[in-house]
Specification:
This protein has helices at residues 3-16, 18-29, 47-52, 76-88, 98-106, 118-132, 139-152, 157-164, 169-175, 180-191, and strands spanning 58-63, 69-74. By secondary structure, it is mostly helical.
Length: 193
């Protein structure tokens, strides 16, 4: 997937329904499997970090295969949108101080997404990709695209492996879509230093 396709998918999903945009952001920026957004609870988000730097990516704890926990990043728009939802539902109010909001949200052990299944997550991605990109994108393709983007931006394969929650580097290598000429160019640049 190209960066422009990802941007279009995100924008259209948020425009359609806030929850859908949040799901797309979690899948892409967190490089999540379709089951992993369902493991996120309200208190899985590091609200203190977000309030300290609201324009930066937030940290979220997820449970992956083998019930292994890892920390992933989420776009600030997803967290800001969640806060607006909690304001609209009167879970938090405009009158609360940031410390009170953080305490309230950190005390909430409820799932972030109620009544949503793995197939529901897949359906959200499919619905928006078919409607706005005119092709069927699976949640796993967002995960692959993020892994490739991380590699292209200089992340090591070990870092990508840890981020994706893979126990085997061989599995991580399958995810990376960098082409041979780019890989050769990077090796040449390192050789000439």
């Amino acid at each position: 997937m190209s960066k422009s396709e990802i941007k279009k998918l995100r924008d259209c999903a948020y425009y359609s329904k806030a929850r859908d945009g949040i799901i797309i952001d979690l899948l892409y920026y967190g490089a999540l499997r379709r089951s992993e957004p369902l493991t996120i609870k309200v208190n899985s988000i590091d609200w203190g970090v977000f309030f300290g730097e609201p324009n930066k990516y937030g940290k979220v704890r997820v449970r992956g295969k083998g019930n292994k926990e890892r920390i992933v990043l989420v776009h600030p728009k997803a967290i800001t949108t969640l806060l607006q939802i909690y304001l609209d539902l009167n879970i938090i109010t405009d009158f609360m101080q940031p410390a009170e909001i953080i305490e309230k949200l950190n005390s909430m052990d409820a799932p972030l997404f109620r009544k949503l299944s793995e197939w529901g997550v897949w359906g959200i991605v499919r619905k928006h990709s078919m409607k706005h990109l005119k092709r069927d994108i699976r949640p796993h393709e967002l995960r692959h695209a993020r892994a490739t983007e991380l590699e292209e931006n200089g992340a090591s394969i070990k870092d990508i492996q840890k981020y994706l929650g893979h126990s085997s580097m061989t599995t991580t290598e399958i995810y990376l879509h960098s082409d041979e000429s780019k890989a050769l160019g990077r090796i040449k640049d390192l050789s000439e230093k």
